[in-house]
Amino acid sequence: MPRTVLITGASGGIGRALCEAFLAIGDRVIAQYRSNPAPLTALQSRYGDRLAAVQADFCLPADVKALADFANRTGVDVLINNAGAAKLALFQSVSPDEAAALFAVNVESAMRLTQLILPHMLRQKHGRILNISSMWGTVGASCEVHYSATKSAIAGFTRALAKEVGPSGVTVNCIAPGFIDTPMNAALDAAARQAIIDDTPCSRAGTPEDIAPLAVFLASDSAGFITGQVIGVDGGLV
Predict the structure, then answer these.
(1) Whose CA is closest to 57, among 11, 88, 20, 89?
(2) Disulfide-capable partner of 150 in 46, 106, 195, 234 (CB 3.0 to 4.6 Å)?
(3) Catalytic position from the list 147, 205, 234, 235
(4) How confident is the prediction along the chain (238 residues), in pLDDT tens digits per residue?
């Protein structure tokens, strides 16, 4: 039976790959985007009304609530908190407003959306929550201190919530990608990019398609005894 999968940050590289992977196995997908629906257009032409694209700005709590209200009309079986923002800058040059925006998008929106979606999962005694973090949440990154802190918070959120909702049949896991070829990483210059690849045992950047199959597995019934885990997909870098 098709499930309803809510994926945030769906117009980014990883988000679009996640949408395509779940659509390909027959699920319905609610795809949140902030400002650019174009990457979802081709998917809509292929999968029709099984993909619903919904605009929401995760800096605005009202938008988070509106997205949850839309999704809760049918109920969400799988929630993937993938939306994220980054800021490449020295720690002392990041303003309080910039820091607050990073935490709003990367942490607060994910936690609030989960709060709003979770009651349906608890009622049906089954659900899958996946959070997309980053290897920098595990090891930290110079010039991405605030971003690293937000992703570390997501890992802690994952582990704690897994303990709380496990008895109700809901699993909570986290995927921590390494260096992935996405628009978010396009700001890196060629030397920085090559340095990361040189440090990666698999000797290449990852792709969104390296992430999506793990998400599909963790959302499946086969992964019902896996919860509270932060799983790296980083080519061996961490």
Answers:
(1) 11
(2) 106
(3) 147
(4) 899 999 999 999 999 999 999 999 999 999 999 999 999 998 999 999 999 999 999 999 999 999 999 999 999 999 999 999 999 999 999 999 999 999 999 999 999 999 999 999 999 999 999 999 999 999 999 999 999 999 999 999 999 999 999 999 999 999 999 999 887 777 677 888 899 999 999 999 999 999 999 999 999 999 999 999 999 999 999 8
Residue 226 vs residues 7, 80, 113, 124, 223: alpha-carbon distances, Å: 20, 16, 22, 19, 5
pTM (global) more than 0.85:
yes
Based on the residue annotation, tell me whether 147 is a catalytic residue of this protein: yes
Domains of the chain in sequence order: 4-232 (3.40.50.720)
| Residue labelled with tokens 């309803």 | 4
> Which has the closest alpha carbon to 110: 85, 146, 140?
85
